[in-house]
Amino acid sequence: MPEANEPLALEAGAHQKLLDLFDKHISDAVLDSHRALGDLWVRVRNDAWHQAVEVVRHQLGWRYFVFLSGIDWMLNPQMSAESSFGGEDDSASKATPAADEAPKFTSGYTGNEGRFQVFCRIHDVPSGIGVTLKTDLEEPGLRVASVADLYRGADWHEREAYEMFGFDFVGHPSLRKLYLPAGFEGHPLRKDFPLLARELKPWPGIVNVEPIPDHLDPKKIEAAQAAEAAAATGGSSDGSAADPAKAKAKADRLAALMAKSKARKGSTGSETPASDGAVPAKPANDRLAALLERSKARKKEREGDQ
Amino acid sequence: MSVNAFDTDFKRAAYIAAQAAEARVNLEFETEGMTLNIGPQHPVTHGSLRIVVRLDGERVVWADPVPGYMHRGYEKLCEVRNYAQVTALSNRMDWLGSFCSEVPFLLAAEQLMEIEAPDRAQYIRTILFQLGRIANYILFLGDMGVQIGAITPIFYAFRDREHVLNLIESATGGRFHPNFDRIGGLKDDLPKGWVDECRSAMDKVDLVADQMQDVLLGNPIVQERSRGIGVLPAEVALEYGISGANARASGIDYDLRRDGPELAMAWKHTDFKVWTHPDGDIFARFWVRLQELREDTKIVRQLLDGLPAGPIMTKVPRVIKVPKGEAYVMTENPLGHMGYYVISDGGQGPFRTKIRTPSFSTISVVPWLAKGVYLPDLVAILGSLYYILGDIDR
């Protein structure tokens, strides 16, 4: 279907023109390019960043500046610690616990050298075709040329990248903070900048199923009952006080667990530790049992109807 | 494409020259410069935007917007959320047309997953998107009146916006934050009788447009306050990344719904006109939005007529993992072009999300635009640029 392919063909043509111009002007500085979904990514060398944007601006005449920002390719330490979240790549590395403390990097289209990248997007207005340009920043200094002289809109975007990542845009008219207060320390969008809310409380989405409370977990109740039976056959029926010292900790815990479960069930056995003065434990499971019974009755009714 | 940049550039130069001449006449009165803080708490700022203005008499020498009083770090928060949870954040960026900001993110995720919502879902998505635009534009028309001294229209706007908000509420359950879009489709189908209700609401919205036009457009005070003030030439607008109705008011004939890359939305099945205005001043921005409000209702009617039957959700895995890759999707939101650059590393959540918001670019042009204007005009210019704080401070 040539009609359906036409827009993509148009884009491919414009992108080819861009690559040809890059070849002509900064041929040795283009490190990689990638095409997908009718879109183009080009990675250029750091020292050719300004030139590359200049080619797009003046040679190609694309005038619509969309955005500029940075990427930190380090894997998020807060997220990689949580097992069921994160990429396929690091799920493999998680199987073998990370012995080395070196931060791991991931990568996107056209690859990256090192941790930080600046990327920007420029569109051509009549055709609506765009390109994403990327460049790597070297760790000490994180310097890159400012493109605010080519696109005036880059001014604020570079100020944002400066405060959020700590990049140094050489030649920027006034590189100062945009959003953050002047005294703010750190660069929030770096992956190693801790997100306080996540430090205090783990990501809630990580838990698909809420863990069963101890007093409702059948396995734990069984174990507790078994322990109780063992303790009873061992001699003392008085519980933890008379237990031998070696298994004390374990038996203690189990006995407590059992007592709790019994209290919840509302069983008034003589061996239940007396909760002196406290409010008698409310039979929490009565409601559950009643619900179960009701549902069973309904089921029977329904079957009877049929 | 009709860009008459030289025309408007020339107009601007002439305007500044006239002002300079006037200033020369007044030279005998020695004036002292003054620095004035507009905001952070100020009615014109739609929230808390601070603008530091240097004044010479009543004329602005330079202006420096200071955003960040409402910065919530959404780009950082996106990194610790999964794809379904991000829509709750994106709702809170442009809160007057919040359904619209959900869409580009999910489209980017769908592009990476190589799935597409079913036809019906695409139509409903587009209808709700258009309703978001309408709600936003109605409020703009009222708000614009307030900025130039007419108090009445804002009350009409708040009253008449309810027609649209009620529709959005009955379909999605949320008046302002629908959180209705899902990867691969929508949460629910439309309720019974919604289509007819929507049609009658569109008639009411058309009446609103007429009413606003009658109240404001022909008013001589409005004309005085808005014609030839705050002129933004097309060249400058493009360099600053100004988009949407603001760009079209500068004569840039560009609408992503018509000219953008093909998205899984239903605009391709509709026929509408993209309005532009050559002047690029306050009046042009007001006029373009008024015309677009009418076009938007037209689009909604066409979509309602063509609404197909079928499922509203495509097959997606229960735990959504987006394959490794990068995608950038931009849509024509009420405030301008909103885009999400999503980088996925194959996990349940985006590795990095760059949110390109229209208001950010819109406000970044204020230092350029404010030079040499009178202080009350600055208020009118800010009103006509129409930004929303949540959209600047992501």
What is the alpha-carbon Rg of chain B in Å? 22 Å
Q: Strand content of the residues of chain A, in percent?
A: 5-15%
Mean pLDDT of chain A comes to: 73
Q: Helix and strand succession of chain B?
A: HEEEHHHHHEEHHHHHHEEEHHHH
Which series of helices and strands of chain A comes N to C? Answer: HEEHEHHEEEHEHHHH
Number of helices of chain B: 16
Output the number of helix runs of chain A: 9
Briefly, what is this?
Chain A is of the alpha/beta class. Chain A contains nine helices and seven strands; from the N terminus they run H-E-E-H-E-H-H-E-E-E-H-E-H-H-H-H.
Describe the structure.
The complex is a heterodimer of chains A (about 300) and B (about 400). Chain A is α/β, with parallel strands linked by helices and about 300 residues long. Chain A is about 40% helix and about 15% strand. Chain A is built from nine helices and seven strands. Chain A has a five-stranded mixed sheet with strand order 1-2-5-4-3. A two-stranded parallel ribbon of chain A has the order 6-7. In chain A, a hairpin with a 2-residue loop joins strand 1 and strand 2. In chain A, helix 7 crosses helix 8. In chain A, about 35% of the residues are buried. Chain B is an alpha+beta fold. Chain B is built from 16 helices and eight strands. A three-stranded antiparallel sheet of chain B has the order 1-2-3. A three-stranded antiparallel sheet of chain B has the order 6-7-8. A two-stranded antiparallel ribbon of chain B has the order 4-5. In chain B, helix 4 runs antiparallel to helix 5, helix 7 runs antiparallel to helix 12 and helix 12 packs parallel to helix 15. The longest helix of chain B is centred in the middle third of the chain and has 29 residues. The N terminus of chain B is likely disordered. At the A-B interface, strand 3, helix 4 and helix 5 of A face helix 2, helix 9, strand 6, strand 7 and strand 8 of B.
